[in-house]
Every structure is written in structure tokens, then in C-alpha cells.
Amino acid sequence: MRNSQVDLPYLPDDLWLNCLARVSRLCYPILSLVSKRFRSLVASLELYEIRTLLGNIENCLYLSLGFSSEQSDARWFTLCRRPTQNPNSNFKSRWFASCFRPHSILTNHTMVSVPIHNLTSSTESTRIAIGSNIHMIGVLGNGAVSSRILFMDCRSHTLHKTPSMQTAQKNPVIRVLDGKIYVVEGCNDPDYSKFMECFDPETQTWEHVPSPSAEIRGRYVSTSLVLDGKLYLFGDKNLVYKPKENKWDVVGVEIPLRWNPTDFAGAVVDNVIYSYGRRSVVWYDSEKRRWRYLKGLAKLPKLPKLPNQGLFVRLVGYSGKIVVLWEKDVRGTDPKKKVIWCAEIALERRNEREVYGKIEWCDVVLTVTKSCSLLHFMTVTV
């Protein structure tokens, strides 16, 4: 049957949903530009229920950027594919038809702004992704930290609330471990019983976690890391919580000496720590207790020169790979602008001492003002 015999715009919604469920989620931001109807379809929970039944689950990248010194001016972006555009076609057809062709033509990538519905007046100080949701601890208008966690459903891009924590934490550090959210008190509090709480999204309940003894607990916690089913906390003292044993201990030799996750962009893939420093991606050999370079990247000319400081770089695990995102000034054309680069790198462990990286794609995904700052970069599953 020829396309001219089918009036595509007037197909029933259930047929469109079954078609869209088979399309890569990376194309949804493009398809939402076709019409209001498509914008509604790609944001419907029914579409994602069909995707789940089909087993069409994907990892997607989300980035938050700060456009002023205030967190309230942060905006969310998500990565999508940018189809090859045919200048001889009208606007709708060239964007619409490309999404249903083989992925070989979808070679370019871009970041598109995410409109968040029912946004509240509180700002978010800390964010973490679990499943299809990005959880955020809010900061109220008076500067106090909220005892409630908000989460953005990345299917519909709507905000929701969890039950309140038993205690509002100061300068909270938040991590996901075994499908649960752990919130740690970042500042010293004489009441050790309030040191850490755990939230179970399945039961929607909070509970306190037994605190470390006064002998090993430090004055503050600056950041954290999840590795091999354990929660590591870094501050003036470095601790590890082992949930299977429900016990605390001091950090041993499994964590790099003289390393703090706040100093570099870091990620964990298949229980290996990857980090960024000195314009290179490195991984940690826990047996020999030394950093090793990720090989195979230096000779690739399409990878632009990376920044010297990790402050301008973000690194995340992504479907068994790593994605590096960094900012670079635009020279000559517009001194008030900068571009954000992104590269997806496949990993290959060839032996105990060598890990090779292969760049699968590398693109400028966004152009922003120079005053814009990188905040959070994370992977969600939808």
C-alpha cells in the first residue's frame, strides 16, 4: 500500500503509540516538534508501558546547566539525535520521516531543553538518578534544606514529591545503592542517630541507618561513591558503609590514595572507577593501586583538546560505556559564547593492565553563554 493511500495524521492514537514505542527514545524530542498531538503522545505514560512490554528500555542522558549564580535559574537538557534534514522537504516531513528510517542517518547529536511541568518555587541543591526518575533535595526560600525529596519523572517531565525525611539534613550528600536512596548529613551533628537515612521507592518509606561510631566518624562529609555494593563517604575522614553486613568501617586500599571524587569528574562502570585529570581519561587498577590511562584515544583527531581542569568536565557511566561532556570557549566568532562537547566511548578490557576506549561519536551538543555553568550530568533509564 502506497503512503498516499493512508492519511497518517488521522491514524488512531493506539496505532501511533505502538509505532512510537518501537522508535528510539532519542528521537522523541524531535517527534514532539511535529505537532501538539505528537508532543502529547511521546509524553504519555501509556507509551512507556508499551515500551516496557516490548522490552524497549533505553538509557538517556540528562544535563542541568546554571544560567546565573542562583540554582533557581538551572535548566534541564536531554540528549537526542539530530536527523539529516532534506532542504527540499517541508519542516514537518523532514523531521518526522527521518525518525522512522534506519539509525545510520542519525549521526549527529544535540541537547534540547526539557520543559518541566508543575515546577515548584524551591530550588534543588543535590540530584541523583534512579530508574526513570531524577531525585532532588530542595532548598527552601529561607535557605533551609527541605525534608522532602522531589523527583522528576523523565517520561512525562513532571515533578512529584516523596514522603518527608524524618530529619532535614544539612548540606546533604545523596547516593543510590541497591535501588534505595541514601541521604547523608554533610555537616557535623552531635546527634549521630541522624547521620544517614534511607528511602525505599518501592514502599515509599524512610528509615534511619545505624551511624558510625564516634571514633571513626569525621567532622564533615563532602562527597560519596558507590562501588561494589558499598557506600563510600569522603571528608576529613573516609568511611565505607556495607549494607549487607549493616556495618561501618574505615576506607581500605580499594579506593585510590590521595583521591577525592570532588577533584575530578568520575564514574563507575562494571566496578571500575574512571576519572578525569590532566586532559585524559584514566581508570583505577585496584590490585596495583595505581591510575592507568584509558588507551586508544590519543591518536584520534576527532576528539578535541580536553580542558585541563576537571571542573569543566563531566563523566558518567552509560550502558557499559562512559560519556564525557566538557565545555570549550568559542574563539573569534563570539567571545561571549562557549560550546559543550560530548563523546560516547566504548570500553574494552584487553588484559588486567589495559583498558581501551573507542569513540563511537563526538559532537558539539549545545552552544551557551560563557556565564553558563555545568551542574549535573546523569543517566536515566526509560
UniProtKB/TrEMBL annotation:
Gene3D superfamilies: Kelch-type beta propeller. InterPro entries: F-box/kelch-repeat_ARATH (IPR050354), F-box_dom (IPR001810), Kelch-typ_b-propeller (IPR015915), Kelch_FKB95 (IPR057499). It comes from Camelina sativa (False flax). Residues 11-51 form the F-box domain. SUPFAM superfamilies: Kelch motif. This is F-box/kelch-repeat protein At4g11750. SMART domains: FBOX.
